[in-house]
């Protein structure tokens, strides 16, 4: 099967963000840099907000789980300690953890940056024209990212190219499961009421591509400047593209 047939066969395109639509440096340096710089101030000024109190409950639940699992380096969160919350979040960010607790709070902190114009979601220049063309051909587009659905909507709702949310038919985050778990892709196909074979998943991470493929989806690896290099085995196992139009007929 040629690479163009891969897109032709799929009714649904499921897209990863970091390393696929958007540079890793935007996520790691700009977005996470904004969160690191604003974290302490955010925690202090939102401490009594209902939304932050909910985030705190989830952070504490995660810390409790980490304690039971003897996670190395864990920063515990005693009641009322702003400093411990900040340290715990920075520790999780240093490890690039994908916990619900971290991603939920990150989404809430970045909200302010997108709303005041300090943050604009990065997209590679080939992404928007390709997405428009795929939608015009009847494809349905969905996002699946470790970033919370709220963070996904902020990025594409305040992108460098404007609000492009209308191109997407829906969003998934780790509420359906982790991105390297096969079951997550089955959960997505169940939620979309489609067969896994109808879905093409685009990602930069071979483990995610393997999980999607094990579920029965088609998966294509995306290489972008700054992404981790692919192994020879990955290059043999998957089609590899360096820009989205490489999939279009
Ligand atoms: C939605 S923007 C923030 C992305 C993020 O938090 C992250 O961990 C990247 O995850 P992805 O699954 O898009 O590689
Ligand atoms: Mg990625």
UniProtKB/TrEMBL annotation:
Its main location: cytoplasm. It is found in: Cytoplasm; Nucleus. PANTHER family: ENOLASE-PHOSPHATASE E1. It comes from Diploptera punctata. Belongs to the HAD-like hydrolase superfamily. MasA/MtnC family. Its EC number is 3.1.3.77. Binds 1 Mg(2+) ion per subunit. Pathway: Amino-acid biosynthesis; L-methionine biosynthesis via salvage pathway; L-methionine from S-methyl-5-thio-alpha-D-ribose 1-phosphate: step 3/6; Amino-acid biosynthesis; L-methionine biosynthesis via salvage pathway; L-methionine from S-methyl-5-thio-alpha-D-ribose 1-phosphate: step 4/6. It comes from the Eukaryota. CDD domains: HAD_EP (cd01629). This is Enolase-phosphatase E1. Its cofactor is Mg(2+). Mg(2+) binds at residues 16, 18, 204.
């Amino acid at each position: 099967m040629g690479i163009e047939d891969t897109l032709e066969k799929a009714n649904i395109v499921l897209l990863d963000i970091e390393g696929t639509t958007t540079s890793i440096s935007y996520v790691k340096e700009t977005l996470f840099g904004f969160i690191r710089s604003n974290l302490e101030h955010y925690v202090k000024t939102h401490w009594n907000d209902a939304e932050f109190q909910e985030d705190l409950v989830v952070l504490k639940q995660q810390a409790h789980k980490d304690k039971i699992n003897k996670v190395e380096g864990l920063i515990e969160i005693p009641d009322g300690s702003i400093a411990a919350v900040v340290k715990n979040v920075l520790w999780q960010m240093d490890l690039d953890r994908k916990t619900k607790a971290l991603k939920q709070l990150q989404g809430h902190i970045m909200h302010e940056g997108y709303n005041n114009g300090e943050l604009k979601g990065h997209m590679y220049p080939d992404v928007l024209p390709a997405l428009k063309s795929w939608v015009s051909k009847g494809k349905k587009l969905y996002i699946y990212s470790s970033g919370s659905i709220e963070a996904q909507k902020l990025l594409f709702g305040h992108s460098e190219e404007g609000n492009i949310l209308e191109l997407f038919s829906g969003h998934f985050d780790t509420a359906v499961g982790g991105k390297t778990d096969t079951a997550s892709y089955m959960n997505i196909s169940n939620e979309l009421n489609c067969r896994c074979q109808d879905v093409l998943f685009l990602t930069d991470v071979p483990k995610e591509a393997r999980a999607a493929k094990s579920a029965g989806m088609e998966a294509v690896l995306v290489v972008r400047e700054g992404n981790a290099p692919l192994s020879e085995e990955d290059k043999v196992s998957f089609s590899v593209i360096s820009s989205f139009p490489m999939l279009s007929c």
